[in-house]
Amino acid sequence: MTPREVTPTHFPNLAATLFADRTVIAFTPATNDVAWAASAAWAAARAVARAGRRVGLVDLSLERPALHPGATDSADEGIVDAFVFGVSMGHVAREQEPDLYFISVGTVPTDPNQVWANERWRRLARGFRQEGALLVLFVPPAALPRLNLELDGLVVLAPVGYAPDGLTFPGIGERLKRGTPLIAIVCTERSAPRPTPPPRRPSFGLRPPPRRPVVRPGVIAAVAVVGLAAVLAVRFGLGSDGSQPAAVAEEPVPDSSAGASAAAAAAPAAPAAPNPGDSLFYSVQVAAFNRADQATAYAQDFGGADAATVSPVRLGRQGLWFRVIIGAFPTASDADSLLRAWWRRGAVERPNGTILRTPHAFLVGREATPEAAHELAGGLRRRGVAAYIVPAPDGSALVLVGAFEAPDQARAADSLLRLTGLSATLAYRMGTRP
Fold this sequence. Notes:
The chain is an alpha/beta fold. The protein has two domains: 4-187, Rossmann fold, CATH 3.40.50; 217-428, no CATH class. 28% of the residues lie in helices and 21% in strands. The chain has helices spanning 11-18, 34-50, 79-85, 89-92, 113-116, 120-131, 170-177, 217-226, 228-234, 292-301, 332-345, 370-382, 411-419; strands at 4-6, 24-29, 55-59, 94-97, 100-103, 134-138, 153-158, 182-187, 282-289, 308-314, 320-329, 354-357, 360-367, 387-391, 397-404, 425-428. Helix 8 crosses helix 9 and helix 9 packs across helix 13. The longest helix has 17 residues, at 34-50. The protein is elongated and about 70 Å long. It starts with a strand and ends in a 6-residue tail after the last strand.
């Protein structure tokens, strides 16, 4: 596998897929910001656990523990006490959430090599392999060569532009020379763009927006009925790119119509649990703008993608931004394959593009035939609602609007859809790949 740079926001969505056939993974910080690196390791471990695989996360920063601030529970004893003093692993491993267990450093060792070079590592790894579980180690670079364990992969947490040549952190280079696969370099996020003045390029560094933004006549008519901000927000689902940014807009754009400004109602009820075999939970964010018309034009111009939507999110003090989100994929690797194809064609500038897990959407219709679904979706698009079609396993076709990571993110869109008179139900994105 060729190592690739990814952001901390992007990587958790890929972690379960990248680690699927691996048992022992090491995360190592090639940065002075160890607290940031630790939070990135926690995010990846949580993502794998939430995908249904048991994960053990172990802090091997023996001289200066790094993972403790992210734990909800930890024992006074840790990996040092287990390996050096014989304390049971069952006692030192503390459950943080379902399927995620954390083992802290515990007692500071007089000789860290007693832990790093301990023979028990191999037995521990063998047990994880037999159970199909994942062992994640947070290891300082200098300790990597001393670790008495074969690693199935290495993830480096580093600033943007880091090169794993071994010159800055020799321990990383030495471990790679032994044949340990470098899975990814998780890089610090670039600073967020300012909301004003409007950027000439999409905020995530993608290709410039179309020179002649396409605004459909139906949008103009809808604006007269509902108000500009309400209609623009209705047409786009609410999404976020993982743990950041912090909050999704609870209200529509300021200075919008009076009806739209009262949008923040209770979150729509969560749909019933899906059949994993039919899930289309993944999508790709390809751009973001601080103007809805730019995002709309970009989405319409993006290669005629069927499952295309625009999601407004509030980026803290940066204000409201409109993200262009494309696709409905069963796995993160499927979404990643399409993103790489876009890179090759130049549709998206490498390494931009973010894979999201967006399992929810608004179901606005189920039609018996594809022709009827296209007629319904086309009518909605002419009204300014970015509907898309997903074929169902039973031969029918679902007409969906938006793509959301959680029901709570859909509350503003739900209120705004009601303002337009549309009847929509929050549902899982299920079906066959469009």
